Amino acid sequence: MKNVTIRALAKELNLSVSTISKALRDSYEISEETKQRVLEVANRLSYTPNPYASSLRGKKSKNIAVVIPEIADSFFAIAINGIEAVVKEKGYHVLICLTHESFENEKAILREFGSGRVDGVLMSVSSETTSCEHICDLMDKEVPVVFFDRVLDEVDTDKIVTNDFESGYAATRHLVEKGCKKIAYLGISKSLAISNNRMEGYKKALADHHIPFEASDIVLCTNDPAYNIEIVKELLQRKKRPDGIVASVEKLTTTVYLACNELQLVIPQQLRIVCFSNLEIATILHPSLTTITQPAFEMGKSAATVLLKALDKKNNGQPKKQLVIPSTLIIRGSSSI
Amino acid sequence: MKNVTIRALAKELNLSVSTISKALRDSYEISEETKQRVLEVANRLSYTPNPYASSLRGKKSKNIAVVIPEIADSFFAIAINGIEAVVKEKGYHVLICLTHESFENEKAILREFGSGRVDGVLMSVSSETTSCEHICDLMDKEVPVVFFDRVLDEVDTDKIVTNDFESGYAATRHLVEKGCKKIAYLGISKSLAISNNRMEGYKKALADHHIPFEASDIVLCTNDPAYNIEIVKELLQRKKRPDGIVASVEKLTTTVYLACNELQLVIPQQLRIVCFSNLEIATILHPSLTTITQPAFEMGKSAATVLLKALDKKNNGQPKKQLVIPSTLIIRGSSSI
DNA sequence: GTGAAAGCGCTAACAT
DNA sequence: ATGTTAGCGCTTTCAC
């Protein structure tokens, strides 16, 4: 079966292509009766417009890209659901682009977007990303970029974040209040604002509670789970080992629990844990995991909403905003008995 | 900054557009020297071809769609990584389309694909899907569809599955061998082949081990976690309650563990559990979870590879194949002490 | 109220 | 080895 085009409809109805086009777009120039006939035939032949012809002609693709480090992290998986819920409504499509935490990948992906493939971009930068030229280049081409979660402060654009500093603070304070005297912080990047903000919150909480901060209590994890386990075990075997841990990303949950198992450390009696995580199964871990739960779905929804607004040419020249949606500390067994 | 087109390059170099086009595609008709000059200028002006013009012209989009029920399930999240790894290599893009287990959504999504938006489709049907017209309609339009995981038997196309029957059998036999006398099966759909195959394996294992099968031991779960908990609790409070459970999908893990917590049932002493799951955190559950782990990444990779092959017109008229990649029973604490 | 025609950016068949 | 040109399917002036 050949693809049915607007021309086929025109022939079928003995009308011109432009009349068909206008009828389909419900133009006021076309009579009700004609519109009806066009619609009827379009349906009968199950006509669907060629998106590429429209895009080429109209200079817009109805695609938006979601550029994220990985997808098998429940924060991003849930956020995508939020994004999708919003953009689908407006007839947009979601292109998922994974950087796998690589700056090179991220640059290559954005470079591709310079020629209209997508109308806009929602992104969370890779853990390696420290500069923003690739993003600014894209924005110079009038492709709006909205950051969510992992933002780059120096780029002047809309951002949807959660209260990382306060969450880091809250997590740490909670551990202090539970009696921890020496709290370690597991990060994933020296440069990521998100990681640093959480860490600053951590430091501030220590300071406010007169607990000396030691640089060696900051441990930088990697993408390699095996390596992470080793350094966490090393951390937990030090002469003066921590009695509390704030883990700044979800995937470190497994690392910490496994390290404790191997070292036969009892959670929370010997080590209290708070993890930034959206894992649904936090409740059934043993002990259940105290989490800082990010509003993943809402962040995705907001990011998409803001992007769609930016795409609407009417709303231009608006100053860029940063929207903060708070996370929640959910206290469970890993930090308190 | 205006978008740089092939025409701009032509003007810059005093060449014709076709020369540029050919040079960029490394045609043998063009001299090495010219190619170099074109490449240099293209780079300098950071030219990127307009994908929609190419698509419109060439009748192919370099997009493939991944149609899946949800993304916040680690099987699908991991599978996407496998898919992406393969198609990225060939310059394809991945369009993620979520059905949210709704047949209506699934139909609407496929209908859209009738006009060239995507060159091919990888899909796992929704739990509501029982008929295949929407899929056949698309295939009639020469859009290849490859199934993975949740297939529709009646559609004659390539399929990548895992050994569901054998896995259901293995899970059940394992529980029998551990001494279970009454084993329940948690399904999610009456119609899904995947769910039924696993169940048939379960039934066969019971029969082979002379354990009477009771229809009431089959419990159909839904998309509503709260409801699921209730029916599982009901199951576990029956006069003759099961001493083993085979849960056929990942999201039921939380359900079962929570139900046991609430009822103060001790796993595995009072109830042994095997769950179909790719959750990395299975190891740190308490007790750690015995799983049937599907080869999610490999299935994604294979599905993508097969689709790309089908997209390559040279390989046409090949008979459709079904590829089975086995799952693995990983025995952990939830089924044995 | 309807139609003719130009053109979005690219490719390829067909000149030269 | 390079250039000319038609056309992919659609939208949008502009004309009738």
TrEMBL record, chains A, B:
Residues in the signal sequence: none
SUPFAM superfamilies given in the database record: lambda repressor-like DNA-binding domains, Periplasmic binding protein-like I
CDD domains on file: HTH_LacI (cd01392), PBP1_LacI_sugar_binding-like (cd06267)
Keywords annotated in UniProt: DNA-binding, Transcription, Transcription regulation
Occurrences of domain HTH lacI-type (ranges): 4-58
Top-level taxon of origin: Bacteria
One annotated GO molecular function: DNA-binding transcription factor activity
Protein name: Transcriptional regulator, LacI family
Annotated organism of origin: Chitinophaga niabensis
Lineage of origin: Bacteria, Pseudomonadati, Bacteroidota, Chitinophagia, Chitinophagales
